[in-house]
Each structure stands twice: as C-alpha cells, then as structure tokens.
Amino acid sequence: MIIDVHTHIxxxxxxxxxxxxxxxxxxxxxxxxxxVDYSLVLTSYKVNEHRPSTxxxxxxxxxxxxxxxIAGISWLNYNYNDVIEIAEYLKKGLIKGLKxxxxxxxxxxxxxxxxxxxxxxxxxxxxxxxxxxxxxxxTGKVKYSHPLHIDDLAVDYPNLKIVICHVGNPWIRDCMExxxxxxxxxxxxxxxxLGNFSEKFEKYMKKEIEEMITYSGDPNYLLxxxxxxISNMNSYLKFIDQIELSDEKKELILWKNxxxxxxxxxxxxx
Length: 270
Ligand SMILES: [Zn+2]
What we know:
This protein has 270 residues and is α/β, with parallel strands linked by helices. It is built from 9 helices and 8 strands. The chain has a single domain (3-269), classed as Metal-dependent hydrolases (TIM Barrel, Alpha-Beta Barrel), CATH 3.20.20. Helix 6 (172-181) packs parallel to helix 7 (199-216). The longest helix has 18 residues, at 199-216. The structure holds zinc ion. Zinc ion binds next to loops.
C-alpha cells in the first residue's frame, strides 16, 4: 500500500491551459504506473485558470475513490463565503485537511488571522499542512517558511495536528527538532527534487533523512509525499527504497501514518 500525501493538479507550464479532468487522469495514470493506491491533492492559495478552486476539485474527484482533497487557504484573500464553504466540506468529510503557504504569502504560522481556521481544523479533527523551506518561486520570502516557526503554533495548539511539508528542506535539522519535541507535528518528504533525483543528490538526501530518523526516533511522524508533478513518482519510490530502514518502519512512512492521520479508509481501496 502506498499513500502520497502531497500532489498538485496545478498547471505549472502556463503556456497552455490543461483541463481539470486531463490533470486528474494524468495523476491517476501516474499513480497506477507506480502502484500508488491513494493520493491527496492539495489545492492552491490562489485561484486562476491554472489553479482550480477547492470547490471545482472537490466536485471533480467525487467519484474517484483513490483521491482526496486538502484545501489550500490564503492568509490574505478570503471572505466569509469561503469560510462557510470550507466548514461545510469539513462537516461532510469532503476535504481531509487544510494547507497554508507561508513563504509564498508573508505570514508566520502563528498569525492570529488564521486562528479561525485552526479552530475549525480542531473541531473536525483534520491536520493542517504548511509549506516549509525553499520556495519554488524566487519571489517567495523564506524567513516565513522556516520550519522553526511551527513551534509556536504546535505549543499554543497542542491538539492541532500539524504537517511540515518538504521536511523544511533545506532546514531539515530544524524540522527534526520540531517533530522530536512536539508529538503533534508531522513532516512529509515531498518536493525534495525537481523531476528525478540525480545519484549525487539522492545520496545526500538519503543521509539527511536517515539522520532525521536517528535523531527524532521511529518515523511515526514521517509521511510519504512527492509534490507530483514537480517531482517524479518513480524516482521518489526508488529514493525511499534506498533509505536504510526496516520494512515495517518503511510501511509507517509509505502509508500507515498517513492513513491514521488523514483518516483514509484503506479497506475501501483494496
Ligand atoms: Zn507542494
């Protein structure tokens, strides 16, 4: 069983507009080729012709049982209708979490503007995910996406389940401390590479992830994710294969932690 907790259907090659159905078919083809059983699709904090709204994605995946939605939330741009819509989706179980984009937008995770969303996540017991580390765009401001800022939120909301995306890369050492210290903090390993891992980079990252597990203990906080289509699924699975870890512990990373955290009904996938 493999669960990918971090995929996108944004169209990053913006010279042509791909339809939402084409993007979803492409995702499912890639999953099938790589024996991935379930993926979470993360919507953006922006909506435009290349970045479909949460509403459109929720509707489009309604009959695809191997996909779930994490709603991207803007720190700056939302109105009361958005709040009502997300609350409805949470109530109906149509979204499995919320995603915030510090760095892409200039705010720290403990910003009081976001309390409303955190309280909602607590009420419906879904995780909140944070972009962390390097920004794909040079216009991002990375002081906001440093994983150390997760600590304030984790301490102030001890029951909130928090996911640091991309293990805070390149600040993996700081991410290590976050998951070690805070039992409510998790990390996904997505987006470590654009496209395929080179041999050299794979070696480097393997060491980083192994060090993280040495420091932070058994990987019951670590989640498999790719950031597809930014990273290649096949190359990512090969990377996981390289990590020195018992099969039992790899299973935690590949699906067991995710199934529990996001309440994914794995029986329904067989
Ligand atoms: Zn991503």
